[in-house]
Amino acid sequence: MSKGTRDHVWGALPVGPAGAEHPLDLSGFDPTVREQITSRLVSPGFDAWSQTAAQVGYCARPIRLRGYSTTVDAQTGEVLSTFATVDEPLGVLHVRGGNRRAAECPSCSRVYAADTFHLIRSGVTGGKGVPEHVSDNPLVFATLTAPSFGLVHGTRNGRKCRPFTPKGQPGACEHGRPTVCHATHGEGDELLGQPLCGDCYDYLGHIVWQWWAPELWRRFTIDLRRALARTLGVSESRLKDRATVQYAKVAEYQQRGLIHFHALIRLDGPKTHDGFAPAPDGLTAALLARVVEQAVAGVSFDAPPLYDEDPVRRLRFGAQVDTKPIQTRSRVDDPNRELAPEQVAGYLAKYATKSATDSVSEGNLHLRRLRAVLAETADRIHAEARADGIPLREHPYALLGKWRHMLGFRGHFSSKSRRYSVTLGRLSGALG
Asked: Which of 25, 38, 65, 141 could potentially form a cystine with 324 if both were Cys, beta carbons 3.0 to 4.6 Å apart?
């Protein structure tokens, strides 16, 4: 075995404490996996396997390709090169799976997180093809949350969970369970996110809101431009002659299993071919923050019924909207500086690589019930569509069951506007 091959393997596997006689520690694996690892280490094809694994960065779920290709000069007909997967060490071409979720592939997730960090940071401070003067433009870090679908336990910034009875309501719900909680919940408390009464919690409303959360975000971006046009005293069609709005956003699961959105929203100058124009004088991050709050408050969407006799629900974002101006040109130790660009970029990149299974416990009673309601609702939708003779593909919730593992969220966890910064494709090509 070559030293390079050995280094690749030891770098990919967990090791025991320093100075241990046997550095390879497989205690965290079950007997079947331990046997597979040791069998691989002593197999005749170990060098070929190690070389292939290293080429794909130890991707947990690589894609296996079979075939061949020939590159020919179009003018002379000369064969420039040929390639066949049978010539690869394992007889198959392996390429990275590229799954962004850490629960699916830690290796690809780290690459995605690094790319996302640079994508987000370049839109804040410049770099990677983005001019540095973009850091002078007004910038706001906004968090858009989901509304309430029932009382749940929370940290409440170190205060008691729910020490008072909700105004106009009795001290117990119709099922006889208390509507107050005098406990102070810390991080990691199993009660966090759990409803005070699971029977009172609106699981169907939760599912519908989660399903249409991407639509609410889309409408928010439209309403934001409209609100900005009103603030500037121009028509919506002429807004591009004064200012443009750019953003990068990621989605994160809350403890109660609902998505909320974190977004960096930047105000640039008039629309140009290259983008990133300086913002007009007089437009500040504080003004942009107020416009964001106005837009969030005005967003709504009437969601179609899940099935027969189900009501139409008017969906909105939650009342808790957090907007923080970011000062990118001030000193790090400036007391007025609320967030550093690297902090925000790292924070958003972290959540861009998380999935439902990364963020919430599989043993969570509330989430088990949510998944059960999702499955039952999807089955009912399919049954009613068949009974009514309606093609399932025409139903707005036809794929609800497919997204059960993501708690009903079907949107992109990370997205950006066209002129926010560099693209992930360019970053992957530069870093690859």
From this structure: 141
Task: Tell me how far apart the alpha carbons of residues 105 and 93 are, in angstroms, rounded to a whole number.
Answer: 19
Residues 334-385 pLDDT 10s: 445 556 667 777 778 777 777 666 655 667 899 999 999 999 999 999 998 8
Q: Please state the pTM of the whole predicted model.
A: 0.81
CA distance 69 to 408: 41
Q: Is pLDDT of 30 > 80?
A: yes
Q: What is the dihedral of CA 312, 316, 320, 324, to 10 degrees?
A: 160
- Which helix (H) or strand (E) segment is 266 a member of? strand 259-268
Nearest to 113 by CA among 340, 342, 343, 348: 348
What is each CA distance from 50 to 8, 40, 53, 94, 390, in whole angstroms?
Answer: 7, 10, 5, 12, 52
* Among 210, 228, 246, residue whose Cα is nearest residue 318: 210
pLDDT digits (tens, 9 = 90+) for 279-303: 988 889 999 999 999 999 999 999 9
Comparing 226 with 325, which gets the higher pLDDT? 226
The strand ranges marked E within 306-358 are 313-315, 321-325
- SS3 label, residue 93: strand
Phi, psi of 102 (to 5 degrees): -65, -30
One-character DSSP codes across 5-39: HHHHHHHHS-B-STT-SS-B--TTS-HHHHHHHHH
Helix axes 3-12, 46-55, angle to 10 degrees: 60
Residues 6+ apart with CB under 8 A from 8: 50, 51, 53, 54
| Tokens linked to 64 | 């296996």
Q: Which two tokens stand for residue 342?
A: 């690297």
pLDDT band at 424 (very low <50, low <70, confident <90, very high): confident
Q: State the residue for tokens 């998505």.
A: 259
Task: Compute the distance between CA of residue 110 and CA of residue 119 in angstroms, rounded to an integer.
Answer: 14
- Token pair 């002129």 is at which residue? 419
Cα 196 from Cα 187, distance rounded (Å): 18
